[in-house]
Amino acid sequence: MTSPLNQTLAQLDPEIGGLIDREGQRQRDSLRLIASENYAPTAVMEACGSVLNNKYSEGYAGKRYYEGQEVVDEVETLAIDRLKAVFGAEHINVQPLSGSPANLAVYYAFCKPGDTIMGLSLDAGGHLTHGWSVSITGSFFNAVRYGVRESDHLIDYDEVYRLAKEHKPKLLWCGATAYPRVVDFSRFAEIAREVGSILVADIAHISGLVAGGVHPSPVGLAEVVTSTTHKSFRGPRGGMILCDAVHAKRIDRAVFPGLQGGPHNGTTAGLAVAAKLAATDDFKAYARQIVTNATALADGLMRRGFSLVSGGTDNHLILCDLTNQGVPGKVAAHALNRAGIVCNSNSVPFDKRTPFDPSGIRLGTPALTSRGMGPAEMDKVAALMHDVVSAPENEAVLSRVRGAVRELCAGFPAPGL
Ligand code: DSN
Question: How far apart are CA 245 and CA 300, in angstroms?
Fold first, then answer.
């Protein structure tokens, strides 16, 4: 009999194996519009689930605490070199376990508790770790928040300048999780330079677009850039920090030993694979298609009466304000999910509802684009979404849309599963 240590998942734990199969089926059969999700390529998944899982590697290549690092050092160095070539950064740390730990490491590198920092407010599209009150970053630091203009939902750079001049933050954060427009990194850099702040660009959502050349890069403008690696970049679940050479030591020390122990080496290998893919012309075409698809989806929704924050999109992301449809975001997101269209409810700027029961839904095209869908499919998706949001409690509509979603998905096999 095979030892339990050598049994497959299906043999040893059919309960968990079955749940993973079910999740695969869900990912195959649904239209995944969560803006931060994607389908990691097969080779990335393979690297993540490899023997590298078994190795501890505190430290950095050539300077580790445990023996047996000859392979891991090469893996980490390759990941860094490939990412440097993609992003043109002077220094890269690939060890942060995800986006929030990457951001926390930046705080740890440059700030003391009580220091003033500044970031985009969560309800205007920022991230928790940009100084929101319930995050450690909003309680350990004096967080000043800027927003978007009520008239056009765009970042008000004059307000950023005014607040930065008044508060002189140690860190000025730019970047967002729910901002459908291009971020003007040059303007942020000017402001940071003038007030003496370190500019940190969190490009978690758009790193694939930056790598593919369809969103301006903050590298060379922001002294520090953070990102997750699994969103539009289509790599493993992880994080990274890019920075000017002058900050390399501080950032590395903040990640390890400051904040983390051993890196997840399988993830590092997966990131190296994703970086290899990101350097190709195919990836550039993919990034362009993400934006083309988001524009097509936005147009299709607006033609059907949806109101979009800022009136459209420049990137991979769309924020719908459902107030005029009289359907709360959560009700819409739940009905859409039942019909096989998966997104998340989301606050919209100046939302009158609560963050847990907001007025909007957030959509993104990285995952559907990975399936090979194009503008024609985006229009079909917009039509199906309209059907559901117009009748979120009508079981017959939900069931009809569910069938149409299955049919659409069947024509565009999901990669990496
Ligand atoms: N959870 C991510 C998102 O969905 O945008 C941010 O960390």
Answer: 45
Instruction: Return the best residue to mutate from 38, 205, 362 for the ligand 1 pocket (most ligand atoms within 8 A of CB).
Output: 205
Q: What is the mean pLDDT of each run of 10 residues along the chain (417 residues)?
A: 94 98 98 98 98 98 98 98 98 98 98 98 96 97 98 97 98 98 98 98 99 98 98 98 98 98 98 99 98 99 98 98 97 98 98 95 99 98 98 98 98 97
Residue 16 forms part of a structural domain:
no
Residue 31 lies in a domain: no
How many separate domains does the chain show? 2
Catalytic choice (177, 226, 228, 365): 228
136 with 161, same domain? yes
- CA dist., res. 329 & res. 319, Å (int): 11
50 Cα–ligand 1 center, Å = 26
| pLDDT for the residue 26 | 98
327 domain-assigned? yes
Residues 394 and 297 in one domain: yes
What ligand 1 atom has the least distance to the C-alpha of 98? 7
Does residue 264 belong to any structural domain of this protein? yes
Tell me, yes or no, whether 265 and 298 share the same domain.
no
- What pTM does this model have? 0.98
119 CB under 6 A from ligand 1?
no
Strands (E), 7-112: 31-32, 59-60, 63-64, 91-93
Question: Per-residue DSSP letters for 94-158?
Answer: ---SSHHHHHHHHHHHH--TT-EEEEE-GGGT--GGGT-TTSHHHHSSEEEEE-B-TTT--B-HH
Does residue 293 share a domain with residue 265?
Answer: no
pLDDT at 1: 78
Domain edge (last residue) among 278, 311, 331: 278
Q: Which residues on adjacent β-strands are paired with residue 117? A: 143, 171
Domain that holds residue 199: 47-278
Does the C-beta of 346 come closer than 6 Å to ligand 1? no
Question: Which pLDDT belongs to residue 258?
Answer: 98
How far does the centroid of ligand 1 lie from the alpha carbon of residue 61, in Å?
A: 30
Whether residues 141 and 78 fall in one domain: yes
Among protein residues, the one with the nearest Cα to ligand 1's atom 4 is 36
Active site residue: 13, 56, 73, 406, which one? Answer: 56
Are residues 211 and 119 located together in one domain of the fold? yes
Q: Is residue 224 located within the same domain as residue 352?
A: no
Q: Is 208 left (phi over 0), alpha (psi -120 to 50) or beta?
A: alpha
Q: Do 236 and 144 share a structural domain? A: yes
